[in-house]
Write a structure and sequence with these properties.
Radius of gyration: 34 Å
Helix content: 40-55%
Strand content: 15-25%
CATH topology of the largest domain: Rossmann fold
CATH class of the largest domain: Alpha Beta
CATH superfamily of the largest domain: 5'-nuclease
Number of strands: 10
Shape: elongated
Structural class: alpha/beta
Length: 339
């Protein structure tokens, strides 16, 4: 039990007990029942405290949802009870039917609102007393993006003007990964936490934590797509399967890999590059190096320079399914043939 709440609960039960005794004190006919009335007051106070304990973890969001559900149920019950269906009949039966209708509709409305309190948050964004500007584009962030790490560098440049929405279950999943006993998963999770802290340190970046949970780990992808769809936001992920699921449901998604490739400069014949030659090529005298984006560069007469950073000049570009294969010669060498 919370040590701060314990004194408050004791005082409340004591006041209820004293209130029962005071009721008998003000009504002289009830003087013989003072002890019983005090006991009844004690029981009422204890019952209220018990309900308080049972509602532990019940948030303001849940209270807002249940109030909204009862209100909607009451409106529906009122509309039905004032319809011609109750125009004629036994007044007592009509009263009982109307009472039952209000109880049933109020209960169903409250239960439905509690089951979908995340959706309720999306319908009424002020339940957390944080105004959400509707004109700001939103981007829902997946766990894979935080682990990837590139999002922090992109946001630091200021190119991403949208607000980042990070669901609570994504943070929980990241924490579980960071606490894993597998060293590799643990390192990935800690890198994600570092990236999250880096994002929070960017003063110009709008980060919003959505209090949304999932019951099962398998529901994470579906909930991410649902949140993006409900908020009319884009989904930022490096998970190909999640991206395809979002695309199927009409949710636009952002691809960091595609962004990285699009930022690579366009190469032209005659342009000079600085690369490291790492291994011999298939043909006599050839050596192979790689650009930062993974493109292969085949250098004629470069085999003597393997293991060195050299300047090369592009002599041919060959498009392939994986990108481009670049043929080059050592800078300053005369143009030679290639196989």
């Amino acid at each position: 039990m919370n040590k701060t709440l314990l004194p408050i609960r004791i005082v409340f039960v004591s006041i209820c007990t004293a209130a029962g005794w005071l009721v008998c004190y003000s009504i002289h006919e009830w003087d013989p029942f003072r002890m019983r009335a005090s006991f009844v007051g004690f029981c009422i106070g204890a019952l209220v405290v018990l309900v308080d304990v049972m509602l532990k973890g019940f948030s303001l969001r849940g209270l807002s949802a249940i109030t909204f559900g009862i209100a909607v149920g009451s409106v529906i019950a009122h509309l039905i009870s004032t319809s011609p269906l109750f125009a004629e009949g036994n007044p007592e039966m009509i009263f009982l039917a109307q009472l039952a209708l209000f109880l049933i509709c109020g209960y169903l409305g409250a239960v439905i609102a509690l089951r979908g309190k995340d959706e309720f948050n999306l319908v009424i964004p002020y339940v957390r007393f944080v105004p959400h500007e509707v004109d700001v584009p939103l981007v829902v962030v997946d766990t894979s993006v935080l682990i990837d790490g590139r999002i922090a560098r992109v946001c630091e440049t200021g190119f991403l003007s949208a607000a980042l929405v990070i669901p609570r279950f994504v943070l929980n999943e990241l924490q579980v990964i960071a606490d894993s006993t597998d060293p590799m998963r643990q390192a990935r999770g800690r890198r994600g936490l570092d990236v999250l802290n880096a994002l929070r340190s960017i003063k110009t970046l709008d980060i919003r934590i959505t209090e949304s949970e999932v019951a099962k780990k398998e529901d994470v992808d579906a909930k991410l797509v649902f949140l993006a769809q409900s908020m009319r936001a884009k989904l930022l992920t490096t998970d190909y399967n999640l991206a395809k699921m979002a695309e199927f449901q009409g949710v636009p998604w952002l691809n960091l890999n595609k962004l990285s490739k699009s930022l690579q400069p366009e190469l032209m014949i005659g342009e000079r590059l600085e690369i490291e030659l790492v291994k011999p090529g298939k043909e006599e005298g050839q050596a192979i190096g790689y650009l930062a984006d993974g493109s292969m560069v085949v250098v004629t007469e470069g085999r003597p320079h393997i293991g060195q950073h050299v300047g090369v000049e592009i002599i041919s570009l060959l498009p392939t399914g994986a990108g481009k294969m670049i043929f080059a010669r050592m800078a300053g060498e005369p143009d030679g043939g290639r196989s």
